[in-house]
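FYI - complex with FE2/S2 (inorganic) cluster, inputs then prediction.
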Amino acid sequence: MTAPVGLPLWLLAELTYRCPLQCPYCSNPIDYAQYKEELTTGEWFDVFDQARQMGAVQLGFSGGEPLVRQDLEELVAYAHKQGFYTNLITSGMGLTEARIASLKEAGLQHIQISFQASDPSVNNALAGSKHAFEQKYEMSRLVKQYDYPMVLNFVIHRQNIDQIDQIIDLCLELEADTVELAICQFYGWAFENIEGLLPTKEQVVRAERITNEYRKKIEERGIKCKLIFVVPDYYEERPKPCMDGWGKIFLTVAPDGTALPCHAARQLPMQFPNVRQTPLKDIWYDSDSFNHFRGDEWMPDMCQSCPDKERDYGGCRCQAFMLTGDAKNADPVCGKSPYHYLIEEARVNSETPVPFEELRFRNPKNSKRLSDKQVNE
Ligand code: FES
């Protein structure tokens, strides 16, 4: 069945793959270092104009680290003038009080700062920077002072999950309005490092229990802080409706102008259009890649006849590809998938993780080495 194509309500502008940090769970593609030709300021303005005309209302600036773009304030001001609700997703590296003030003046409505851990030394070891924790802490305070909604994001994994209580304490100390305790999803570098990052079932259960206890305390004390706890796909039995459906509301534009239905799609063996050559309207409505997984005709028989297909759309195409080699397969997270054993194997492997020292950090050298390896395999 082919449903009418919706509007690209949510535009994600991945301004750059450059980043001063080296997180081993980064969701950027493994081969990110080969994409160097970033869209110019003017090209981004054109993308914003086209997306807005097509009905986009929310614009996220991400990366890499979007603050390495010195035209960020200009881009925000332009998007704000066009009527977008604007959101900056940042590590906080490169942020200064002057930039917080000028982004506010440019109309930025929302800043989300990510931390690696509550313990400065763990944070800095994961980030690959000696001063990361101090900088993030200081910038979070300033973001609050400048009256932005305070949103903190912690990617939770095996290396920090047992400190969940200290993490929440830190968020309360910083007076966060919203905290995302998102257990790592395994895309990009995180998938490369899954054997060192996937927590055990017991760790996940404990972390969720502690989060619930904090929620109760927070409510009793009348503190305004929303804790969002995200369980990883690997401990679910039903797949998530990834991106709310392929090509339904999300449109990502990568630093080099490649248009994608999700941040992880460029690894799929498909040709994705580029905003430098193709108008956004044609990309969204007419391109083979955006139409490829719309509706249900592409689904295997098992998903076609499943009553949940309207809810989960067969799960995540990228996860199906990464685990089974074919993006058309049902997401192996689904308990009915013949590939679900791969998820069960990963759960068993989480009992004997690889040590921290063996994690592959996201940096240009590792990017080149791992992508050369992929090509040769
Ligand atoms: Fe690409 Fe789920 S991340 S479809």
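The first strand starts at residue 10 and ends at 14. The mean pLDDT is 95.
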